[in-house]
Design a protein that fits this description.
Elements: E1 11-20, H1 37-49, E2 56-57, E3 66-77, H2 82-92, E4 97-105, E5 117-125, E6 139-140, H3 147-155, E7 159-162, H4 173-177, E8 180-190, E9 194-201, H5 208-220, H6 229-235, E10 250-256
Parallel strand pairs: 3-10, 5-6
Antiparallel strand pairs: 1-3, 1-4, 2-3, 5-9, 5-10, 7-8, 8-9
Length: 257
């Protein structure tokens, strides 16, 4: 018997910080007939470590949505050379997905359930002519908006509220049990070519950021009256809110633990 087979083996948990361009993918979560970010990361881990590895993310991002700071974890029985594995993963992954960091983490850490809050950013391009260099990463508005109305609309979404009207699956999954979320921050920042809407909450429902953004834009363009927002909340009916903003302007900026 080899001596090393007598050595104890320990299961260690590892944390990944991931950035990706979601343009070509069906989103984070594994899907049966489409390519997801999660699938490619699990495949890369399994190839590099020569055993089947599953990776759990902080949450799903939709098809076409990007991430600057997605977080995931996985477990592995045995020792890992972190720098070597980090290099190998980025060599195996396509160039629009990158592992920013790889580190050991506590046994009780969970990429989703340990998160205290998440930060999303929605990028709007208000330039007269859309730049070909930002067209995949910002929504170019085809209409003018009133910035004062946009700011006032934002006020109606801040705080702890029932966001059922702004979820595409309000009667499924976690939203069916509890659609109340605390939107700590909703800030609007001016940029060279437009605006960034920055959202921080203790959790987000399915398509919540895109649905809020679309509703705010409908108010800012005069399509929806400002005083309709409280009624939309009260209705708890997705059909009462505005159309979802396109996915390509949305980034998962960071997860806070």
């Amino acid at each position: 018997m080899r001596r090393d087979t007598l050595l104890p083996r320990f299961i260690v948990k590892y944390k990944l910080l991931i950035t990706y361009d979601g343009t070509r993918y069906c989103g984070w979560q594994v899907q049966p007939n489409a390519t997801s970010i999660q699938t490619l990361i699990q495949d890369a881990l399994s190839t590099a470590l020569r055993t089947k590895i599953g990776a759990a993310g902080s949450g799903r991002t939709d098809a076409g949505v990007h991430a600057s700071g997605q977080c995931a974890h996985f477990t592995y029985e045995g020792s890992i050379e972190l720098e070597k594995l980090h290099h190998s993963l980025n060599g195996l992954l396509p160039p629009d997905i990158r592992i920013l960091s790889l580190e050991k983490t506590d046994d009780d850490f969970h990429a989703r359930y340990s998160a205290k809050s998440k930060v999303y950013r929605y990028h709007l391009n208000t330039s007269k002519v859309e730049s070909p260099f930002t067209r995949l990463y910002a929504y170019h508005l085809p209409y003018p908006i009133d910035l004062n109305l946009l700011e006032t609309a934002a006020h109606h979404f801040r705080g702890e509220r029932d966001f059922a009207s702004f979820s595409n699956e309000a009667h499924r999954g976690s939203a069916a049990h509890n659609s109340i979320r605390n939107l700590h921050r909703l800030e609007i920042h001016k940029t060279k070519n437009g605006l960034i809407l920055e959202f921080e909450a203790n959790g987000f429902l399915y398509k919540m950021v895109r649905n809020i953004t679309g509703t705010m834009l409908d108010v800012a363009r005069g399509k929806l009256p400002l005083d309709s927002i409280p009624n939309i909340f009260e209705a708890k009916d997705r059909r009462q809110a505005g159309q979802a903003a396109p996915p390509h302007g949305l980034f998962l900026e960071r997860v806070i633990y």
